[in-house]
Amino acid sequence: MDIGVGSFLFAQALTSKQARGSSHKGSRMSTIMSTIKAVSPLLVIGFVRLASVKGTDYQEHVTEYGVHWNFFFTLAFVSLLVGIVNVSSDKLSLAGLFIIFVYQLCLSKFGLAEYIIHHSRDNLFSQNREGILSIFGYAALFCVGAHLGNFILKPRPSMREWHTLFFQLLLLNAIAYALTLFSNEYIAPISRRMLNISYFFSVITLNIFTITMQLLVGIITPPKDNLILTAVNYNGLAMFLLANLGTGLVNLSMKTIYASDGVAFFILSVYIGAISVVSVILHQWKIQLKFW
Questions:
Q1: Cα–Cα distance measured from residue 245 to residue 11, given in angstroms and rounded to the nearest whole number
Q2: Which has the closest alpha carbon to 95: 82, 108, 105, 106?
Q3: Which of 133, 150, 155, 270 matches a 20 to 30 Å C-alpha distance to 139?
Q4: Contact present, 38 and 31 (Cβ < 8 Å)
């Protein structure tokens, strides 16, 4: 889960409007209103999830996001923050690095890490401090992901240019991995709860490595569309919601911590198979579950 939420947001950033260079061009107020409209479904889903979790007494750990916060609120506020700032595509990485360095400085030198870990939950902000404060780390991650997406999505008519991209990504991956090791050893251990700089670089490392290996496969094998990947991408948020509902149903129906390896493997196979089948059917019937 910890690496999954960061990777989901990073993947979202790779193909975002910021990555495509199609950010809103109107006035600041029109940009804010347009962004609020775009994130409103996420806010609605976040409140629905909050009500359902509290109403069903569903198992939760407040140290993940807080008492009331959840990942849908994080997605909404990260999109809102990045949309309002509206940084040009070629400066997104600089913005992301600036945000994460300032945020880490606050964590390490100004007591923010101590506040997140040990402070009492005596008001609405402190009750949800993990979710609210980690927005800065997620926003930094989104900025870097969007800049990388903008770089990868540039037209490359010749195979030689794709080979060059492969080696460029290898170099970026090596740099990100070195920064992960350095920050984890000398700055702070990796923490998704705080979304610190070590977690930031670890998510970037994993995702650049994944993209690089996918590119390698695309270079050495004939181009071929992957039906399931295409179908899931066609309804990305809807499939993410379906996966969340599936996880909830499993957790409500059994104590997963006591499941044997065989039972766990069977449940995961059915879970993945069901999501894949639904996504393919929706894609084949050209049904896109998006209303904003």
A1: 21
A2: 82
A3: 155
A4: no
Within its chain, how far is the Cα of 261 from the centroid? Answer: 28
The Cα–Cα gap between 65 and 134 comes to 9
Measure the CA–CA gap between 144 and 92, rounded to whole angstroms: 6
Q: How confident is the model at residue 273 (pLDDT cuts 50, 70, 90)?
A: very high
CB atoms under 10 Å from CB of 169, counted, come to 20
Handedness of CA 269, 274, 276, 277 (dihedral sign): positive
Of the chain, the end-to-end C-alpha distance in Å amounts to: 27
Length of the chain equals 292
User: Residue 196: CB partners within 8 Å, gap ≥ 6?
Assistant: 103, 104, 107, 113, 137, 183, 187, 188, 190
pLDDT score for 64 = 92
Backbone angles phi, psi at 152, to 5 degrees: -70, -35
Residue 127 three-state SS? helix
| CA distances for 203 relative to 3, 4, 68, 213, 239, angstroms | 7, 9, 25, 16, 22
Task: For residue range 71-115, list pLDDT tens digits in order.
Answer: 999 999 999 999 888 788 889 999 999 999 999 999 999 999 999
The number of angstroms, rounded, from the C-alpha of 140 to the middle of its chain's C-alpha atoms is: 11
Q: What share of the chain is helix, strand, coil (3-state, %, to 5)?
A: 75, 0, 25
Residues 141, 13 contacting (CB under 8 angstroms): yes
